[in-house]
Amino acid sequence: MMTPLLKVLLLCISPLTLYALDNGLALTPPMGWLSWERFTCNIDCAKNPDECISEKLYMDMADRMVADGFKEAGYEYINVDDCWMDMARDDSNKLKPDPDRFPSGIKALADYVHSKGLKLGIYTDCGSKTCAGYPGSLGYYDIDAQTFAEWGIDMLKVDGCYAEPTDMDQLYPQITIALNNSGRPIVFSCSWPAYQVDAGMDPDYTEIAKHCNLWRNFDDIEDSWASVLSIVDFYASHQDELVAAAGPGHWNDPDMILAGNFGLSYEEARAQFALWAIMASPLLVSNDLRSIDPKFKALLLNKDVIAVNQDPSGIMGKRIYQKSNIEIWKRPINPMTRAGKYSYALVFFNRRTLGGPVEVSANVGSLGLDNVDCYDVNDVFSIDNSQKYCPSDNITLTVNPSGVRMLVAKIINE
């Protein structure tokens, strides 16, 4: 029998220590498509029938994901973002979709997406309203989690507008509990630390990693190179605490992949994709798959970059060198030998925008690749054969402005 003292102690323990997310999902970073950056809150279907937030948009993207090889490459989520809702809940206090833009309902949309072998994500907010002013989930966490489960939702993004950052340590774990009790495994994407960072707080990443499968840490990405660089700099400056929190089932989310939109050159898009892979980030692209340029499509389907991103060890990479606008990033990847030695992925990143390509040279051993005799090194963006490098050798590469060279260095033999 529980003693009175033990009862009191249990009541004093924070819910953070009693309830952790229990879904067994996102063992590698989620991959898919998300509507927000490209289509934002366009609800004018009369004027923009092909670009408004509607069931047609998401069905179109599901079709393209399958037909164009994205599903086969590992992209599996079609994610609805803000502005899908009606402005009021129904008579049972359940969320409901806008009847004009989602006439078939969300359950029917989920069924369609599932029929394609894909998964459906949806959006809500932990506060009283979403960022666009639609009904939030505050006070309705259990009802909403059950509703999403009944609809067949596979991923839930929970934003943090209209909630106090100081309350989020209590609010987001309540959503975790509601999802655990929903009866359906649903990947939980939260914005918990992003709002706390913006408020000047220090997020508790140890606790956040217990309650969310992925979490936003910083500002919304915009379709610009400056935005990408600001996110990269945030991650580099906080990399020790972020690396410690990341791993199978719980990932830092630097936001959407922009390749195929308007703001990034091909070199810049390739740099973002490579850096997101090194950082073990979710690969959620936000573009129009119906009209994407073939070279950007090929980039997003690069199997070697995806393999780095999806590496089962789940170790987030770090920036290991920074000087004169040249950076080197490194991530341990499988195969790991019986002696505990990793292969590695490397990104050589040229942030310069003036002049032509820059020659970068680095000693293999100085990069930390010194625990085996030699490595088989392959450039993931080149069709050239791999080369053998040993710790005493130098790797010399030419890197374009605002561009990257990405290498995979696999252990040859011990």
UniProtKB/TrEMBL annotation:
A biological process term (GO) from this entry: glycolipid catabolic process
Pfam families, sorted: Melibiase_2, Melibiase_2_C
Sequence ranges assigned to domain Alpha galactosidase A C-terminal in this UniProt record: 314-403
Main location: other
Keywords: Disulfide bond, Glycoprotein, Glycosidase, Hydrolase, Lipid metabolism, Lysosome, Signal
Entry's localization field: Lysosome
One of the record's GO molecular function terms: alpha-galactosidase activity
A GO cellular-component term linked to this record: membrane
Enzyme class: hydrolase
Coiled-coil annotated residue ranges, if any: none
InterPro entries attached to this UniProt entry: Aldolase_TIM (IPR013785), GH (IPR017853), Glyco_hydro_27 (IPR002241), Glyco_hydro_27/36_CS (IPR000111), Glyco_hydro_b (IPR013780), Melibiase/NAGA_C (IPR035373)
Gene3D superfamilies attached to this UniProt entry: Aldolase class I, Golgi alpha-mannosidase II
Signal peptide coordinates: 1-20
EC id: 3.2.1.-
Assigned protein family: Belongs to the glycosyl hydrolase 27 family.
Subunit composition and interactions: Homodimer.
Protein name per Swiss-Prot or TrEMBL: Alpha-galactosidase
Organism of this sequence: Nephila pilipes
